[in-house]
Amino acid sequence: MTDQAQYFEYMQGRTFLAVLYRRNVLYPRLAKRIVGRLLDVGCGLGDMLAFRRNSVGADINGRAVDFCRRRGLEAYLMESGRLPFDDESFGSVLMDNVLEHIEDPVSMLTDVRRILPPQGRLLIGVPGSRGWDCDPDHKVRYDEDSLVAYGESNGFR
Predict the structure, then answer these.
(1) Helix, strand or coil for residue 18?
(2) For residue 31, which phi and psi values (nearest 5 degrees)?
(3) Beta pairing partners, 55
(4) Phi, psi for 125 (deg, rounded to 5)
(5) Strand 75-77 and strand 92-96: pairing?
(6) Other CB atoms within 10 A of residue 15 CB
(7) Whole-angstrom Cα distance, residue 121 to residue 157?
(8) Within a 10 A sphere around the Cβ of 101, how many other Cβ atoms?
């Protein structure tokens, strides 16, 4: 089985409680912070895309992108770590449980800045201490302070 196939299978193993939490607690809270058109980077199975219609997803996992498309959701494959969108084409970008998978996310954050207008919003979610141990692909551990500092050092405030 390929790495993408294994990770796609892993994503599908989420619990029903996790799905309920995202749909009924997390996503409604995030929706209050979103402005304009939303890009969900690392959209996975497309849960946010289904929650907030007319949002767009991007993922490096082709199986996840195909899965989203079969669900009738708009999702695109990210090749070479580049977002396939025009400059300033989204009002908000969500990276939920994505940043910790990237050893050096500077180029990704630079690309995110490119597709956001100056007043655009970047929302980042990373796993807490319990969630960190659940995924062997995690590379960088963030807490709130380090995440804010890292964002600011990469041009976000």
Answers:
(1) helix
(2) -60, -30
(3) none
(4) -120, 135
(5) unpaired
(6) 8
(7) 9
(8) 17
Give residue-wise pLDDT tens across range 11-38.
Answer: 777 888 888 998 999 999 999 999 999 9
CB-count burial class (<10 Å; 0-12, 13-18, 19+) for 156? middle
Give me 111's structure tokens.
């690309």
DSSP code for 92 = E
Task: List C-alpha distances in Å: 81 to 44, 47, 106.
Answer: 15, 22, 11
Beta bridge partners of 39: 56, 93
Q: Which two tokens stand for residue 106?
A: 């500077």
CB 49 within 8 A of CB 57: yes
pLDDT bin (cut points 50, 70, 90) of residue 101 is low
Q: Which tokens is 141 given?
A: 């551990």
Q: For the whole model, what pTM was predicted?
A: 0.86
Question: Which residue, among 109, 117, 111, has the nearest Cα to 88 in the 3D structure?
Answer: 117
Q: How far apart are CA 146 and CA 38, in angstroms?
A: 25
